[in-house]
Amino acid sequence: MTHTRLRARDIRRLLVALVLGGSAMSIANQACAVYAIAQYGEPKYPADFKHFDYVNPDAPRDGTLVLANPDRLTSFDKFNPFTLRGNPAPGLGLMFESLTTGSSDEVASAYCLLADDIDVAPDGLSTTFHINPQARFSNGDAVTADDVKFSFDTLKSPQALPQFSVYFAQIARAVVVNRLTIRFDYKVATREMPLLAGGIPVFSHKWGMRPDGTRIPFDQLAFEKPIASGDYLIDKYDNGRTISYRRNPNYWGASLPVRVGTHNFARIDYKLYSDAVAKLEAFRAGEYDVLVENVAQSWVRRDVGKRFDNGELIKREFPHHNGAGMQGFFINLRRPIFRDVRVRQALDLALDFQWLNRQLFFDQYKRTGSFFANTDLQATGKPGEGELAILEPLRGQLDPAVFGEMPQQPDTDPPGSLRANLVKARQLLAQAGWTYRNGALRNMNGQPFVFELLDDSGSGTSMEPVAAAFGRNLQKLGITMNFRTADFALVQKRLDAFDFDMTTVRLPDVQVPGTEQLSRFGSKYADQQGSDNLAGVKSPAIDAILRRVVSAQTHEQLADATHALDRVLMNGYYVIPHWYSASHRIAYSRDLGYPAKLPLYFAADEWVLSTWWKKSSANAR
Questions:
Q1: Where is the signal peptide (predicted)?
Q2: Is 75 exposed, middle or buried (0-12, 13-18, 19+ CB in 10 A)?
Q3: Interstrand relation of 450-456 and 502-507 (parallel, antiparallel or unpaired)
Q4: Residue 494 shares a structural domain with residue 467
């Protein structure tokens, strides 16, 4: 079992990331006017490439794919995925495109999509994109530089998700050069900037425009259908519970190399279920085609039955090379009881991963020990020379432990034990002023140590036994943890307002860390409601390291800065880390096909949407 719930805000950010086609990307050093750019070295694919290696260019382009809600949302109330208020419909990423898109077998590359030419200034302070004259929106209008500028200005405004103002903070302006040419000017010349600009989702300036020429405010757009350039259109929807997309017969980009072999279904339907149990039963009954299983126990014990036995449903694990991200219990430092790092470390010592892995997870997981696990950006051992060059000027602001060995997560396998971990935890708590008396752990004022672990009700079947085991261990320390579940929408509102003690979150993984780290850990965003800085991290030292991350000019510089960031974050004990798997568990209908070659870096849901196909009944297994 695992719990990979993403907050709605993170889901929307992921949707945008999928539109961008990958992680943060950047440029080669020299000026260029080219079909593609890469962060380090050269793009994998040559100028005359026909399609990506991990697609089937001859895949059938017909049939209907039926999916369930890909996240915890059980209903939707808008078609605008770029604003904070409300819940967006699933699948909206199918409608939006950007100037460039990435490939899934490179960590940082960008190929022309809406653009057909990229020109990076010699000083790196601007990038000019020429728009493909064939590019069209769903209403038949040509995509113009004015539309790109409108999209950028809107997304960077207060009407859009606050993350956009973070991601695009160093893009000073978008300048319309002529009808099909747009230039982005930057405040700083970092390798990330040109590809951030190339990845901006583009939509028509007519989206939200009334017949009389007046405009609906962007943050008030609800069921006004997007006017965008992607190859799917909203066909129908019902009561915020179902939505259907159909391929646009006039889609402009079907023959582009980056689109060949992709989006092979004529229709894509979503059905939203009220909880995980209903969702699983519906899959076993044949109501939809693909189940991406994030719960190990369900994969072993519940994803079974007659239709699995007779081959109508197939289970397979697909390996990937994604960074693991960070899933864990996030601690809200805005609460006074959590401000002492020794308290947070003590809580970490009370989670017995080895017991959980044996008893609940069927030994399917590895313990997460880094914010960049499963990548070469994970810090190990003692700081190297490059890290020390970053850390030494900040020594007076950092815990001395940062300069020692990278902290290891508690272990209860022999010779380790839960008892030994709890003894250490009790010592840390006593040092922080918490002692056991009168039946509870209390501070010097006699107040008991009580807090709430907040989780959404849709995840109760997976996280409740974990919380129960964690709570039992905390009770041995005299700490009372109240586990509370609520509807996802209510939980989301509380997280946006930072009204929680501890909660379960998974930060989406990135292959190349960049500006998204600012929103997660930057001091500026600790008090900005709706930001990704859930823990409330406020550290000038971390801010300084973050600046080194986003300004890295080589992979070596990026690795040193990310290692330093990882080391400081892990020594801050802002999160009680959970676990990860290096494969995607997917159960699917036998009439679906997928390419023989897997991509390296991919999200399971997006991979199915973008490269699978419906087989003919004659060929179905």
A1: 1-28
A2: middle
A3: parallel
A4: yes
Which tokens sit at 252?
A: 């402009």
449/311 same-domain check: no
Instruction: Please check whether residue 222 lies inside any domain of the structure.
Output: no
Q: Are residues 478 and 551 in the same domain?
A: yes
Low-confidence winner among 172-186, 207-221, 285-299 (lowest mean pLDDT)? 285-299
Report the sign of the C-alpha dihedral through residues 341, 378, 192, 104, in that order.
negative
SS3 of residue 12 by DSSP: helix
- Map tokens 């939980």 to a residue: 491
Dihedral (Cα; 506, 508, 513, 518), 10-degree rounding? -60
Please count the residues of the chain. Answer: 621
Q: In terms of domains, do 288 and 378 share one?
A: no
Q: What CA–CA distances, in Å, run from 250 to 199, 232, 246, 346? A: 23, 10, 11, 59
Please give the residue that has the higher pLDDT: either 296 or 185: 185
Give the single-character DSSP code of 299. Answer: I
**What's the token pair of residue 297?**
């126990």
**Cα dihedral across residues 217, 156, 180, 195: positive or negative:** negative
Q: What is the mean pLDDT of residues 569-576?
A: 98
Q: Which domain holds residue 615?
A: 273-321+582-599+610-621
Measure the CA–CA gap between 506 and 456, rounded to whole angstroms: 13
Domain count for the chain, please give it.
Answer: 2
CA–CA distance, 483 with 89 (Å, rounded to integer): 29
Which range is most confident: 377-391, 456-470, 542-556? Answer: 377-391
DSSP sequence for 57-74? TT----SEEEEE-SSS--
3-state secondary structure of 190: coil
Question: Would you state the pLDDT for residue 570?
Answer: 98
The whole-angstrom separation of Cα 552 and Cα 547 is: 9
Could you tell me whether strands 267-271 and 64-68 are parallel, antiparallel, or unpaired per DSSP bridges? parallel
Q: Which residues contact 605 (CB under 8 A, 6 or more apart)?
A: 67, 70, 292
Taking a C-beta distance cutoff of 8 angstroms, is the pair 135, 204 a contact? Answer: no
Residue 282, in any domain of the structure: yes
Contact 603, 47 (CB under 8 A): no
